Amino acid sequence: MRNRYIFLVLILLTLFIGDSIGQKKQLNVFTWAGYVSDDIREGFEKEFGVTVLVDTYASNEDLLTKLMAGATGYDIIMPSDYMVSILIKQNLLAELNRDNIPNFQNISPLFLGKYFDTENRYSIPYTFGTAGIAYDSAVVSPAPDSWSVLWDAQYKNQFSMLDDQRETIGAALKLLGYSLNTTDPKELKAAKEKLIAQKPLVKQYKSEAEEILIAGDVVMAHCWSGDAFRAAETRPTIQYVIPKEGSSQFIDAVCIPKSAPHQARAEQFINYLLRPEVNAKITAFTKYGTCVPTAKEFLPENLREHKFIYPPKEVLESLEWLRDPGDFTRHYDRAWEEIKAK
Ligand code: N2P
């Protein structure tokens, strides 16, 4: 009897305070591929005695599908702007406890109070960037300036498109002169048809374009600015252009799912990310912009004002944010399914 009692107490201790009696504490991060570097992860592990596990996704829609299907173990996620709006609406995000995030004050106001979370109750910015076309200037000439180059038959099988429904439909919408966020069925249909017509020319749909650009598997890629930047570091003839018809800009945020097992630890991680010297490592690794101005002091000169990260004013003015199209989302879902199924 007595033995059984001791056994029960031991089990309860393991279950309720297992974390603090020797078992290593964990933090589960679910993020974009190539977004959290080993030095950022290991720095936090060493200082806070926590094991950081990183799992990755390739699109906002993948993240949403996983969370909607009831995935629960994640403490940190990194949705983009419009997906933050959707997750808030779905009641899937925890409110951040700012008392645990004193480094919030390090963030530039330029990246706060955005449309998707006007008081930053649920999100802090991680990075910012754009979508455009990376091209190998040694092969692609003249330098492209329009989305139309991705419909040019001379590049058949030599380029990739993002495997991302809003971005790729967005590129076609922009080429046609429409908004990225159209809710007009005729405009969406025209974009869908444009992408179906393009399909025989596309080598692959891929959201991580860095390696295929470096390997020369493609000479152009519809991709995000940081991926283009990283490819150009290894293959310096790679250039990046935001087409004249305009494109998307994004802020990728850090959020805590409502179901997070370790909310306070996740806030500690967010606070760590917002230290200038740690935040600089995010830009040094991802080649996306930093939202912490004092982080620039820890960055090499070429990363402080690089043209891939900071487009000129007239280009900035041509950029649009992706937004939650509400109920119209199902039309985007269906159009994307039809494009991929062809
Ligand atoms: C990660 C790119 C994420 C940017 N490679 C998409 N918002």
How far apart are the termini?
68 Å
Portion of residues in beta strands equals: 15-25%
CATH class of the largest domain: Alpha Beta
Total helical elements = 13
| Number of structurally distinct domains | 2
- Which architecture of the largest domain per CATH? 3-Layer(aba) Sandwich
Please outline the helices and strands.
Blueprint: H1 2-17, E1 25-32, H2 38-48, E2 50-57, H3 60-68, E3 76-77, H4 81-89, E4 124-136, E5 159-161, H5 165-175, H6 185-198, E6 204-205, H7 210-215, E7 220-224, H8 225-234, E8 238-241, E9 247-254, H9 263-273, H10 276-286, H11 301-304, H12 313-316, E10 319-321, H13 329-341
Parallel strand pairs: 1-2, 1-3, 5-6, 5-7, 9-10
Antiparallel strand pairs: 4-7, 4-8, 4-9
Helix pairs in contact: 5-6, 6-13
Structure description:
- This protein is of the alpha/beta class and 342 residues long.
- The protein has 2 domains: 2-126 and 252-304, Periplasmic binding protein-like II (D-Maltodextrin-Binding Protein, domain 2), CATH 3.40.190; 129-249 and 310-341, Periplasmic binding protein-like II (D-Maltodextrin-Binding Protein, domain 2).
- The protein contains 13 helices and 10 strands.
- The protein has helices at 2-17, 38-48, 60-68, 81-89, 165-175, 185-198, 210-215, 225-234, 263-273, 276-286, 301-304, 313-316, 329-341; strands at residues 25-32, 50-57, 76-77, 124-136, 159-161, 204-205, 220-224, 238-241, 247-254, 319-321.
- The strands form 2 sheets. Strands 4, 5, 6, 7, 8, 9 and 10 form a 7-stranded mixed β-sheet that branches.
- Helix 2 links the parallel strand 1 (25-32) and strand 2.
- Helix 5 (165-175) crosses helix 6 (185-198) and helix 6 runs parallel beside helix 13 (329-341).
- The protein is globular and about 55 Å long.
- It starts with a helix and ends with a helix.
- Bound molecules: pentane-1,5-diamine (N2P).
- Pentane-1,5-diamine is lined by residues 32-35, 80, 208, 224, 227, 250, 252.
